[in-house]
Design brief:
Helix 2 crosses helix 6, helix 5 (about 210-225) crosses helix 6 and helix 6 (about 230-245) runs antiparallel to helix 7 (about 260-270). The longest helix is centred in the middle third of the chain and has 25 residues, at about 150-175. Helix content is about 40%, strand content about 25%. Strands 4, 5, 6, 7, 8 and 9 form a 6-stranded antiparallel beta sheet that branches. A 3-stranded antiparallel beta sheet has the order 1-2-3, with no helix packed on it. The protein has 7 helices and 9 strands; from the N terminus they run E-E-E-H-E-E-E-E-E-E-H-H-H-H-H-H. Strand 1 (about 15-20) and strand 2 (about 25-35) form a beta hairpin. The protein is α+β, with helices and mostly antiparallel strands.
């Protein structure tokens, strides 16, 4: 794995009101870490903080539903974003016949940039390829509170199960879609072209024969050789690259965040419309 989860969250968030230069309390407040007083964000005074202790309580509540075990946490941007990973211990988890390690992922931010969200993180045991599907929980605005009813927890579980089944159906269908060497090159161009304009023939050749293009193509050849010249092998070639070859400043469990996650999502979109 690229990253080791933290077993505990040893800090929490606190808020303090902000005042004007005249000493009058404003309509803004600051969220800070309580261990080192590092600021996390300036937000509206009506912003409801969902603390780390509340996140842990939520995770423990999901554990009590059975089949799940809280394995740990990851932090990004100095703690502005926190992810909790809850292992799905259901025996015999497989995807396209391959053994699978799977986690329910709950994310929480303190800077007002996103709502709490839930998703799933997957690792194919055959080659430790990591990919994730993160789905914003727009229906759970009330998660700002500290109490979770059993009905709420069951709804979180149901939402997670619905999403994983949708994703698995999508991935299973990839096995029936044949690909060609031309499609492999088109995938490489699609993933590596960061320009807004459509690349011309010269730009396409530059992308295919670049160092990243070579590494990506080698990864795809490896996986399609094992899994077949189909869209599932093509997708796994990309997840192999992002899990084992990609040089990134962000290293995270399950490739839930950053460049690797973006490439995986683009690859899945490409393969799904073939």
């Amino acid at each position: 794995m690229k990253s080791t989860l933290k077993k505990e969250l040893t800090w929490d968030v606190k808020s303090q009101p902000l005042k004007t230069i005249m000493g009058i309390e404003s309509n803004r407040k600051m969220n800070l870490r309580n261990d080192n007083n590092e600021p996390l964000a300036v937000v509206s005074k009506n912003y409801k903080v969902f603390t780390n202790s509340q996140l842990i309580k939520l995770c423990k509540g999901i554990e009590r539903l059975g089949r799940f075990h809280l394995e740990g946490f990851e932090e990004f941007r100095g703690g502005k974003l926190v992810l909790a990973f809850i292992r799905n211990n259901q025996p015999g988890l497989k995807l396209a016949g391959l053994e699978l390690k799977e986690h329910l992922v709950i994310g929480n931010s303190f800077d007002g940039t996103r709502q709490m969200f839930i998703g799933s993180s997957h690792v194919l045991c055959r080659c430790e390829n990591q990919f994730s599907s993160i789905v914003p929980m727009r229906k759970f605005r009330h998660v700002a509170g500290s109490d979770f009813t059993k009905e709420t927890l069951e709804l979180i579980k149901t939402t997670y199960e619905h999403e994983r089944k949708r994703l698995f159906y999508q991935l299973e269908n990839l096995k029936s879609k044949k690909v060609t060497e031309k499609l492999v090159d088109e995938m490489i161009i699609y993933l590596l072209n960061n320009d807004k304009e459509v690349p011309d023939d010269l730009r396409k050749m530059e992308l295919i024969h670049s160092l990243k293009g070579h590494e990506l193509k080698s990864s795809i050849i490896k996986e399609t050789k094992d899994l077949g010249m189909n869209a599932f092998g093509l997708f796994n070639g990309v997840t192999w690259y992002t899990s084992h070859e990609l040089k990134s400043n962000i290293s995270n469990f399950g490739n839930t965040h950053g460049v690797a996650s973006e490439l995986n999502q683009k690859a899945l979109e490409f393969c799904s419309v073939l």
